[in-house]
Specification:
heterodimer; A: eight-stranded mixed sheet; three-stranded mixed sheet; 11 strands; B: about 45% helix
Chain lengths: ~425, ~60
């Protein structure tokens, strides 16, 4: 039998239930892979066992690990930072309590961007997280360790947070499936805040079916993945004009799997992204105001610049953008019509290298970062769910991800569509070579 | 709408007690001004709408 750690979560769960595998064998297999992959990816910050799992529950015996910002009482959460290095959490995050109750193991803390405020996976304090498909390239962020650990089959799933794309960018760049949930759908208590109007929590896993198992636990809901007619809408002309040719071909090729694919005018990606940034920067700077006054030298330069910017946004501008949010959401619902999802790339450009997007990236760095995040932030401003799935590989052998953006609380439809797509394709089943 | 200058931004941060390296305001101004975009829906925004209206629309 191949390594147990390379099964999907759903397969591992079925084998545990049939007693063809033991929880100890699964854990040993994950730990053996962590041993081999950690040096190359730097996905883990700590491999201390945080919770040993339970014998019963929907996720009994399944090894998971999470972004180092989901608090567990009495355990360290560094939040990817120098400022919170060694900080011991006084409470356990609501989502972690739900996963514990479902019997999942929590086998370590995963790397992340400093305070979840960066889209690439760079980290000056804990070391960059590296893409398992090629360590020269970014993992995407801020849930960088979550993307890398799931892609390299070190754990069966991981939680991430998504404020401007932080679940979907690493899912896309690392070739795994990631769900950005509807704002307010999953409880945020005990998770490190960045921007309270935009923050969401969601799973990264090896398939839509695996994401459904994790989502149903953290959202305390049931998810039905049974086949159904799936209608999508897309803007193929815009995608062909604005996305890299390899990305456009891979994403638009997915249309044939769905029952119906209609064309609509593209959403105002750039305008809505600007609104997202107005909210994110204002709220993040307010969140960090005390440390920015007293410890600004302890932030990396990239994060400090983002935080400084938020102090220069007028309060009236911030609040007007929040007032506008409801009518933009109405417009979105109207545009979607009776479709289940809007299909577009997660990242429209080829994944850049860590060097191109780091402190030595030169004058083009800001543009490269804007290109990477162009198609994710608008979704956070609307607050709607989005599922990212691998849909191909570029000529360099790096994953391409597509995005299915839904209506509020439409996670089940997205997961069912993703599951249907993954029954017809095998992109999600491909693994990076050791 | 007028753009914020680097000097204005330096004053805004100083007023809030946030230290800023000399000349950094100029660099921040580019990004901050880029967020002040023209939105055609601004003119259609009902007077009674507040940020909490969003939650009602989300759940509708």
């Amino acid at each position: 039998m191949s390594e147990p750690a390379t099964l999907t979560l759903a397969e591992a769960r079925a084998r545990l239930q049939r007693r063809e595998l033991s929880p100890a064998e699964l854990l040993d297999s994950c730990r053996a892979r962590i041993e081999r992959w950690q040096k190359r990816t730097n996905a883990f910050i700590s491999t201390e066992m945080r919770f040993p799992g339970a014998d019963t529950g929907a996720l009994a015996g399944i090894p998971l690990a999470h972004k180092d910002m989901f608090y567990r009482a009495g355990k360290v959460s560094n939040c990817g930072s120098k400022i919170r290095k060694g900080w011991v959490a006084p409470q356990t995050a609501a989502v972690i309590e739900r996963l514990d109750a479902a019997g999942a193991l929590d086998i370590g803390a995963l790397n992340m961007a400093e305070f979840a405020y960066g889209p690439t996976g760079h980290n000056d304090h804990w070391g960059d997280c590296c893409n398992p498909w090629n360590p020269d390239y970014i993992t995407g962020g801020s849930s960088s360790g979550s993307g890398a650990a799931v892609a390299a089959r070190l754990v069966f799933g991981a939680l991430g947070s998504d404020t401007g794309g932080s679940v979907r960018l690493p899912a896309s760049a690392c070739g795994v499936t990631g769900l950005k949930t509807t704002w307010s759908r999953v409880p945020l208590g005990g998770a490190m805040p960045l921007s309270h109007s935009l923050d969401t929590i969601g799973p990264l896993a090896r398939s839509a079916e695996d994401c459904a198992l994790l989502f149903s636990t953290i959202a305390a809901t049931r998810v039905d993945l049974s086949p159904r007619p799936m209608k999508v809408v897309t803007s193929s002309g815009w995608i062909e004009r604005n996305a890299h040719a390899e990305v456009a071909t891979a994403v638009l090729g997915a249309r044939k799997v769905f029952t119906e694919a209609k064309e609509i005018e593209p959403p105002e990606f750039d305008l809505l992204s600007a609104h997202c940034l107005t909210v994110m920067q204002s709220e993040a700077s307010a969140q960090h105001a005390q440390w920015m006054r007293t410890r600004s030298q302890d932030y990396s330069s990239a994060v400090r610049v983002r935080l400084e910017a938020g102090f220069a946004i007028p309060a009236a501008q911030y609040l007007e953008v929040l007032r506008l949010r409801s009518i933009w959401l109405e417009q979105w619902k109207k545009a979607l019509g009776d479709a289940d999802a809007y299909l577009c790339p997660a990242i429209a450009v080829p994944i850049p290298t860590r060097e191109e997007t780091g402190v030595h990236g030169g004058p083009e760095t800001a543009r490269r970062l804007a290109d990477v995040t162009r198609l994710t932030r608008w979704v956070n401003y609307l607050g709607v769910p989005s599922l990212v799935l691998p849909c191909g590989f570029d000529s360099r052998g790096l994953p391409i991800g597509m995005q299915l953006v839904g209506r509020p609380f439409g996670e089940e439809a997205l997961l069912a569509a993703g599951h249907a797509y993954q029954r017809e394709t095998d992109w999600h089943a491909r693994m990076p070579k050791e | 709408m007028k753009n914020l200058t680097g000097e204005t931004i330096e004053t805004m941060l100083a007023a809030q007690g946030v230290p800023l390296a000399a000349g950094r305001g100029e660099r921040l101004a580019v990004g901050v001004n880029a967020l002040n975009v023209v939105d055609r829906l601004r003119e259609k925004l009902p007077f009674e709408t507040d940020p909490a209206t969003y939650l009602a629309v989300l759940k509708k």
